[in-house]
Amino acid sequence: MSTVRVVVNGETHEWDGPLSVDDLLGRLDLDRRGLAVALNGEVVPRSTWADRDVADGDHVEILTIAQGG
Amino acid sequence: MADDHAEDHAAADPLVIAGEKFGSRLIMGTGGAPNLEELERALVASGTELTTVALRRVDPSAPGSLFEVLERTGIRPLPNTAGCFTARDAVRTAKLGREALGTDWVKLEVIADERTLLPDPVELLDAADQLVDDGFVVLAYTNDDPVLARRLADAGVAAVMPLGAPIGSGMGIRNPYNLAMILEEATVPVILDAGVGTASDAAKAMELGCDAVLLASAVTRARDPIAMATAMRHAVVAGRLARGAGRIPRRLYAEASTSFDGLADL
After folding, report:
1. Whether B165 contacts B194, CB under 8 Å
2. Across the interface, do A34 and B30 touch by the CB < 8 Å criterion?
3. Chain B residues touching chain A at CB-CB below 8 Å
4. Radius of gyration (C-alpha) of chain A in whole angstroms
């Protein structure tokens, strides 16, 4: 089993791989409602979260709705 | 009740954007409220059926959930691209909003700098083109520039949203003549967005012929946000009714409303 080092919202995490986007959200214990994910600057559609692997060195942004506008 | 009559009138005269109907012509943003409880009460008092939300990094330690406020109130969220300075970032943020909320509606906002928060016309039009091509229903926050509004409508946006004055400035409608030019040739709904300071600004926008008013700070930063939200709700209905009723022409001198016939000889 390999270790995957991922930068999530600017903070570095290390997890045992392999790791999908959906696994990553689970390890962070996040409520998935109202979330959006970008992997290395590219938006990952919700429908592909379970299939999309996060690789060592990836940068992930996890966004949610906030007050504004 | 007179008030019920006004509300009935609003329901019979819905705002239509991209074929979807809204009973309220007031769109309230969620920005600027001190906390979610106060925001929720103000949103409900405003009567809005559509509310803008931003996208920011998730913070699991943040108190409360805006998502739950929207669920409880049933108010439809309109994700925005606030904070974006380039077409590239705005397009990506719009796509994130689509994933977060499962809507292809977006309030497109591409600003030029932090001091003025004025839209950058070049980046805005570029982003609008890309998002329309990608199937988004784009409500474009724009300058009070009739030519830019025309170019955005030509690009296929669902609504143009000219500013009355810079975001959060509370300066009202600084250029009603430009707004009149935008309204005269509008082929899509025109929503006054930004600059509203108080209820008379919102009523004025509707009297000038705007289809709706979008505001946030005027309510959320008022001393009493719930009272101001209520004021805005009434102002938008009043302005719409006044527009439809047809104002009397302005004249320099008086025109008596009481006849001089039959006046006593004293």
Report:
1. yes
2. no
3. 29-33, 36, 39, 52-58, 60, 65-67, 70, 77-80, 82-83, 92, 95-102, 107, 109, 216
4. 12
Tokens encoding B14: 């819905």
Contact state of A69 with B67 under an 8 Å Cβ cutoff: no
Cβ contact B55–A65 (<8 Å): yes
Q: For B169, phi and psi rounded to 5 degrees?
A: -80, -25
pTM for this model (two decimals): 0.90
**Buried b / exposed e across B136-156, counting CB within 10 Å, b at 16+?**
bbbbbbbbbbbebbbbbbebe
Give A32's contacts in chain B (Cβ within 8 Å). Answer: none
- Predicted local confidence at residue B5, as pLDDT: 60
Do A30 and B60 lie within an 8 Å CB cutoff? Answer: yes
Supply the angle between the helices B176-184 and B146-155 in degrees, to the nearest 10.
Answer: 30
The whole-angstrom separation of Cα A18 and Cα A38 is 18
Closest CA to A25 of A44, A3, A1, A2: A44
Pairing of strands A42-44, A35-39: antiparallel
Q: What is the DSSP letter of A34?
A: T
A44 and B CB contact within 8 Å: yes
pLDDT tens over chain B, length 266 residues? 445 565 666 668 899 999 999 999 999 999 888 899 999 999 999 999 999 999 999 987 877 788 889 999 999 999 999 999 999 999 999 999 999 999 999 999 999 999 999 999 999 999 999 999 999 999 999 999 999 999 999 999 999 999 999 999 999 999 999 999 999 999 999 999 999 999 999 999 999 999 999 999 999 999 999 999 999 999 999 999 999 999 999 999 998 888 889 999 88
DSSP string computed for B91-145: HHHHHHHHHHHS--EEEE--BS-TTT--B-HHHHHHHHHHHHHTT-EEEEEE-S-
Residues of A in contact with B95 (CB under 8 A): 43
